[in-house]
Amino acid sequence: MIPSAKARLSADGQRLLLDIDTQPREFAALWLRERAPDAETLDPLTGQRLIEAAELPLDLALESAELSGDALALRFSDGHRVHFPLDELLGANAEDLVAPGRLLWDAHQAKPQHADFAAAIDDDAALLEMLEGLHRDGFVVVSGVPAEEDGMQSLMERVGPLRRTNWGGIADVKSVANAYDLTMTQRGLEPHTDNPYRDPIPGYIWLHCLTNAADGGDSTLADGYRAAQLLRERDPAAFDCLTRVSPAFRYRDETTWLESEGPLIELDSQGRIFRVRYSNRTERVEALPAEELAQYYAARQAFYQLITSDELTLNLKLDPGQMLIMDNYRLLHGRRAFELGGGVRHLRQGYVDRDSTASRRRVLRQQLGNAEEAA
Ligand SMILES: [Fe+2]
C-alpha cells in the first residue's frame, strides 16, 4: 500500500519533513545519504556500506525531494541521486513500546504454543513455526524430546550453538546436598531472569524435563515486557527509575567470579523495552544517595509485585519428555517449592544465544518465502 505522504525540505536542505497521515516524520539529509539504497552506497548482496560515511561533508544537504510512486526521489548537494522506497523509511515507529512482532500477555491471555521435537528436527517449516512462537510470546513448549540426558541437543544444533558456561554445556537442575546455587535446593524460586552477572547475558534458556514426579515444583512464567508496560502505565516515575538505575550483579564460587551491571528495565536506542533483569539473589545495588535509593527500592517493589502477581503469573508443570524454551531478555521464570518425598525431579538446562536464534528465524523466513516480515 502506498501511504499518502507529502515531502518538503527545511530552508537549509539538511532535513526532510514527511507528512504521513497524522504522523509527521523528520529525516536528516546525511542519514538519507549514508543509507541510500543504491549499489554505489550499499553493497547489493550484503547491504554493507561501501562509502566512508565519516567523510561525507557535515553540511551536506538535499537539493530536491519528490514523491514518485512508492519512493522518494532525492538529489543531494554532492550530486548523488537515489530513489528511496517509502516503506524502508517508515519501518520504525517511535511510538512502539517493544520491537515489532511481540505479543505481550497476562496470565489469562497466555496461550502456550506447542511444538513437536521430531517435526522441528525434520522440517524447516515446523522449526520456523517454533521460532516464531518463541519470538512472539517469549516462550514455547516442545514435546517429544528424547529421554536422554542431552536429549535436546540435536534441536539446539538446528538453532544455534549451545553456549558453554562455567557450569558446562547442558547442566543438571536438580536437588543436591551442599548446593552451590539455590536452584539446586527444594525451595521455591522467586521469578528471575538468569545470569545477569554474565556478559553477554544468555539469550534463551532451554529447560528439558527428564522426570518430574515431585509434588509441586511447577514452573512459573511472567512476561517481563508486560510487567514493564503495566508499571509504565500505573507508575511512570517507577518505570523511569528502573530504566535509569543500573545495579551490579555478582556470582562467586571457588573458581568463578562473574560481575556485570544493567538496569532492571533496559530500553533500546529508540526507547522501546528491550531487556528486563531481575535476580534478587545476585543483585548488588551501589550505596547511592539515600533519596535515589529510596526511589529505587519503591520502584523495584512495585515491579516485584507485578512479576509475582496472579495477574501475570502463568503456572506450568512440565511432563517428562517436554521442554521449555524461554526468552531470558523478556520472561521471568521461577519455581514453586517441591517435596522430594513425592518423587524425583530432574531437569536439564542449557543456553543458546540471542543473535544466532534470531538469525535462524530470519533466514528461515527468507528461505520459506516470508522475507518481507523477516525483521
Ligand atoms: Fe533460572
* Distance between the ends: 19 Å
Oligomeric state of this protein = single chain
Number of helices: 9
Radius of gyration: 24 Å
Largest sheet, in brief, is:
7 strands, mixed
- Report the structural category: alpha+beta
Cofactors, ions, other ligands = fe (ii) ion
Q: What is the CATH homology-level superfamily of the largest domain?
A: Clavaminate synthase-like
Beta-strand content estimate: 25-35%
The CATH class designation of the largest domain is Alpha Beta
Query: Would you give the CATH topology of the largest domain?
Result: Double-stranded beta-helix
Taking all residues together, what is the mean pLDDT?
Answer: 90
Using the alpha-carbon principal axes, give the shape.
globular
The second-level CATH architecture of the largest domain is: 4-Layer Sandwich
In the residues, how many domains can be counted?
A: 2
Low-confidence stretches: none
Write down how many β-strands occur, each being a DSSP E stretch of 2 or more residues. 24
Assign a percent range to the helix content.
10-25%
